[in-house]
């Protein structure tokens, strides 16, 4: 980050009324459902604000810190991306809380009429606290996070431009508690992390479009790495590095942010898989895309993307299995199927599926 950038807390020091700690970020989940309605599609910023304010909820923190904004034909829009997709298609959960907290820390909010330059990255103080303190200094020992440390961090930084930091520090510390930042401290691939990777790509691509520089599909892993995604999305690991390559391909093949447009996905499917007859199930719920090399790489996708996900090398599962997905059962079934194929080819396996799985777990 350039030393010329300024960190300004803006409206973050206002009370959003998150409620008790046990509620997590359910109020944000409700706000997104109010503002976007029932369709995962960009909505005019004024309409979003109207819908939320009519319900008696504050709107500035969601649209200025958690969501992405853009202007088209003189109209300001709030963008429908992975965070919105998860809010509109799934119940509130700890997975949503962690995804939303990642969106806040990643801090890409776009532009709208009369927005200031620093509002494009409105929470750089949070981004740097996670990257420079939690990741680099604490090595994801989240027990060291507290309001006093946050206050000391930002007040020591010349880029922080505000009269005080105590309210910001206590609000951010509370947000980290309810957003479950302690659960970021793992190198395992988890579903919220998979969603966060899609969200990061959504925001990075839209941010570059503001400058007229949309990246090509092959550049996605590179821009993801340069963005600091790996620094703020939990503890790094080889498993995550390997998953990134598969997920970047899935993201690109499904059409990037256009994956939410059924018409676009249909055209893309006809282009990519012309020999397959177009088919889309009546059930509107998302499908699951799981990679055969690692069942932890499980991504919920719009139903129209199913054939494209298969083209990208993923296995597609139905909504019921997505809700109750069991990684060990998935591996067991795939292992048994592989053994059956060997037997069909008159190759005699020396181990059963259960023995192979035990050997894998023991490694």
Q: Helices and strands, in N-to-C order?
A: HEHHEEHHHHHHHHHHEEHEHHH
Strand content: 5-15%
The low-confidence parts are none
| Rg calculated over all Cα atoms | 22 Å
Order of strands across the main sheet: 1-3-2
What separation lies between the terminal Cα atoms?
A: 41 Å
Helix content: 40-55%
Global outline: globular
**Arithmetic mean pLDDT:** 90
Give the number of helices: 17
| Structural class by helix and strand composition | mainly alpha
Features:
49% helix, three-stranded antiparallel beta sheet, mainly alpha, 17 helices, 363 residues, single chain, globular
Structure description:
This protein has helices at 26-36, 45-54, 60-66, 82-89, 94-106, 124-135, 147-155, 166-178, 191-209, 220-226, 229-232, 238-253, 262-272, 306-311, 319-323, 327-344, 353-361; strands at residues 43-44, 69-72, 75-78, 287-291, 294-301, 315-317. By secondary structure, the protein is mainly alpha-helical. It has a three-stranded antiparallel beta sheet. It has a three-stranded antiparallel beta sheet with strand order 5-4-6, sandwiched between helices. Strand 2 (69-72) and strand 3 (75-78) form a beta hairpin. The longest helix has 19 residues, at 191-209. The model has no long low-confidence stretch (mean pLDDT 90).
């Amino acid at each position: 980050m350039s030393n010329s950038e300024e960190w300004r807390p803006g409206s973050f020091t206002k009370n959003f009324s998150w409620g008790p700690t046990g509620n997590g970020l359910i109020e944000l989940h409700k706000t997104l459902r109010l503002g976007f309605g029932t369709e995962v599609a960009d909505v005019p910023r004024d309409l979003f604000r109207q819908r939320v304010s009519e319900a008696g909820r504050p709107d500035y923190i969601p649209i200025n810190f958690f969501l992405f904004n853009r202007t088209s034909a003189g109209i300001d829009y709030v963008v429908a991306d992975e965070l919105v997709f998860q809010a509109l298609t799934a119940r509130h959960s700890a997975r949503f809380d962690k995804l939303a907290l990642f969106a806040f820390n990643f801090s890409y909010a776009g532009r709208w009429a009369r927005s200031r330059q620093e509002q494009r990255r409105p929470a750089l103080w949070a981004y740097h606290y996670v990257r420079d303190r939690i990741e680099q200094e604490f090595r994801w020992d989240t027990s060291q996070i507290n309001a006093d440390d946050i206050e000391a961090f930002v007040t020591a930084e010349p880029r922080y431009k505000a009269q005080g930091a105590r309210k910001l520090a206590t609000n951010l510390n509370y947000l980290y508690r309810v957003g479950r930042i302690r659960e970021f401290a793992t190198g395992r691939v988890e579903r919220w992390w998979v969603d966060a990777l899609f969200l990061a790509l959504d925001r990075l691509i839209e941010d570059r479009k503001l400058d007229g520089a949309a990246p090509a599909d092959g550049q996605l892993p590179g821009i993801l790495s340069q963005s600091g995604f790996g620094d703020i999305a939990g503890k790094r690991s080889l498993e995550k590095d390997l998953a990134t390559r598969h997920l970047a391909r899935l993201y690109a093949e499904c059409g990037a942010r256009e994956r939410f447009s059924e018409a676009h996905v249909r055209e893309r499917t006809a282009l990519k898989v012309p020999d397959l007859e177009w088919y889309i199930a009546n059930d509107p719920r998302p499908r699951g895309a799981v990679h055969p090399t690692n069942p932890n790489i499980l991504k919920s996708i719009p139903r129209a993307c199913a054939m494209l996900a298969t083209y990208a090398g993923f296995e597609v599962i139905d909504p019921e299995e997505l809700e109750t997905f069991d990684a060990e059962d998935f591996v067991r079934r795939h292992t048994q199927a592989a053994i059956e194929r060997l037997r069909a080819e008159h190759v005699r396996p020396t181990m059963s599926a259960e023995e192979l799985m035990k050997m894998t777990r023991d490694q």
